[in-house]
Design brief:
The structure is a homodimer.
Chain A lengths: L2 H10 L4 H8 L3 E5 L4 E3 L7 E7 L1 E7 L5 E8 L3 E2 L2 H6 L6 E4 L3 E7 H10 L1 H27 L2 H11 L1 H6 L2 H8 L3 H8 L3
Antiparallel strand pairs in A: 1-8, 2-7, 3-6, 3-8, 4-5, 4-7
Chain B binds a DNA duplex through α9.
Chain lengths: 189, 189
DNA sequence: TAAAATCCTTGACATTTATCAAGACTTGCT
DNA sequence: AGCAAGTCTTGATAAATGTCAAGGATTTTA
């Protein structure tokens, strides 16, 4: 149950076994069905999740009430609403599983205590933040610098699992086009 | 010269005067003309900057060679290419001043030594990362969930200084439309 | 300070993408 | 297993945005 998260942390920092087990002991398993809402607009996020298996869609409701997908997360990834988690403000986004998903979850209080007590965990968190920020920068650049077909090609080159694992509707929302447009773009690939 | 950065750090963390001055002593002043390239595609970023006065455009070259603006930074903001700075990989982005600009700059080695030595500086960095990540998430959501006119209105509500201080060409690139389209959108505001 | 360069706007037109509708197909639920 | 719901595709059309061109305004630079 803890092997994936253990490897992930070891990949980021050199932690002695005692510290590592101390950190892991604060994570509780959470299993959900598909379409489970982890967090919805207006909620305050009190939990940070590590995905053991499954998939989470993070989305936003546009002015027509349609879902706009900000990001998609899979096993081996860390996920929380950073704004709401760090400042305890209401979330503007929805977090929903799109497959049966199993998490390791840690509450906010435990999380920040660990950060203060275990320097290697702080260091791991810093690296996760840097990588998440970097990923979001790439995503902004894909929207400012590419048209829809190039964004689709970019996903095919860099995140191919998204195209094979998820429905066209969700892929379209992630690429930032209507499902009809995605259907037509596929013919041009 | 250090008053803005001093207030910024104090706003983020409680630091004793000695630690604060120790941290500040590692920052060197850098003044540039407008259109100075701080970093270009392919460069490895070895410096983190705090803007004392002025403005920096971070952009990307699209497949036509046009500039796509990922973000704009002003006095009081921290700026570095996080990917290149943290992993010492070549930058994919350009960083250019668009006004005469004065910075406080710190080299990568000093930066990471300070992070290790001064817990309050680590804590400040963590908060800056969280805020930067949060800002980039808002920007992704503006592209996935809004059309061009709504993005322009969003900037007017939330970053009005961008509209009053910068050229239409740069605003257009930030909004993600051609200058001609921006010119027409202004008539609909 | 004057020439050169760049910027801003507007018009005409092309291209991209969205919307609406319908039918075939797939999936989920009981 | 079978029905209901949702998905995917395609066509027709509308709306949004890009491109090219040109002229006037502004800014830069020599």
């Amino acid at each position: 149950m803890y092997s994936l998260i253990e490897n992930d942390i070891k990949k980021l920092v050199n932690a002695d076994e005692e510290s590592l087990q101390f950190v892991l002991s604060h994570f509780k398993e959470l299993k959900t069905k598909r379409n489970h809402l982890l967090l919805k607009e207006g909620d305050v996020c009190r939990t940070c999740y590590f995905i053991n298996k499954g998939c989470v869609q993070v989305y936003y409701l546009d002015k027509n009430g349609d879902e706009a997908t900000r990001d998609l997360y899979f096993e081996g990834q860390w996920i929380t609403n950073i704004d709401s988690f760090s400042k305890q403000e209401p979330s503007k986004e929805f977090y929903r599983t799109i497959e049966p998903t199993s998490f390791l979850a840690i509450g906010r209080d435990n999380f920040f205590q660990l950060i203060g007590k275990v320097p290697q965990f702080m260091e791991a968190y810093r690296q996760i933040l840097e990588a998440s920020y970097s990923h979001s920068i790439n995503r902004i650049n894909s929207f400012t610098a590419m048209d829809a077909l190039d964004r689709l090609k970019w996903v095919r080159e860099n995140q191919a699992h998204i195209l094979t694992r998820l429905s066209s509707k969700i892929i379209a929302s992630y690429i930032g086009v209507s499902p009809e447009t995605l259907s037509r773009l596929k013919n041009k690939l």
